[in-house]
Amino acid sequence: MKISYFTSGTPFQTNCYIVTTDKNNAVFIDAPQVNMNVLEELDKQGVKITKILLTHGHCDHIESLAYLAERYDAKVYIHELDEPKLHDDYLNLSEYFADYYDKPVAHFKGAHTVKDGDIIEQDEVKFKVMHTPGHTKGSVCYIMEDVMFSGDTLFKMSAGRTDMPDGDYGTMAKSLKKLDGIAEDYTLLSGHGGSSTLSEEKRRNPYMKGFDYDDMF
Questions:
Q1: Quick one: how far is CA 4 from the chain centroid?
Q2: Distance CA 13, CA 179 (A)
């Protein structure tokens, strides 16, 4: 198994992670705008995209979703609370950010919905779903071995914004508390920006450090 990634060329600079199994099947974590060179290289290597795991349903994470799902006949997974965003321009923010796109973000129906604790398997690799709402109601992290794909819940020294439709600061704080309570350490691969570790974010991230959560609710 190996992990590679690319960052979209849009102003959002959204990360997409590619987990390639020993059998040359690939799982995409999120589906931002993809450079065709990336796909051509995967094709050259004989890699087939079999699954797309979405951390949430905002437009910058689903820009290439419909295209990739059709091209590779890939299965799509998203939390049940964010599934409506895949075919609603208001909920996925593509209506709000219309000036960023030459054409509307393509809708997608037929995704498999997941919930907290679900396990998604591809060959030798297993992804555990952790529901971490706050950025959106259906935001999730995916845990794979010693890696956490945190989407827009937790970034290196930051956390996801909560001022968009169905975002909520109080709910985000609870999700960050949930992450803070995890005993294991993980390499943190987020939806935007550079990588980190969960232990480093516990020590230094101001959004996880110093809050008295019990006094907030």
A1: 15
A2: 24
What are the two backbone dihedrals, phi and then psi, of residue 145, each rounded to the nearest 5 degrees? Answer: 55, -115
Confidence of residue 67 (pLDDT cuts 50, 70, 90): very high
CA 193 to mean position of chain CA atoms:
13
Q: Of all residues in the chain, what percent carry a pLDDT higher than 90?
A: 91
Query: Is-contact 62 91, C-beta < 8 A?
Result: no
The secondary structure of residue 135, as a DSSP letter, is: S
DSSP 37: H
Q: pTM for the whole thing?
A: 0.95
Q: What is the per-residue burial (b if ≥16 Cβ within 10 Å, else e) of 178-207?
A: bbbeeeeebebbbbbeeebebeebbeebeb
DSSP helix/strand/coil, 145: coil
Q: One-letter amino acid identity for 75?
A: K
Where do we find the tokens 């930051």? 158
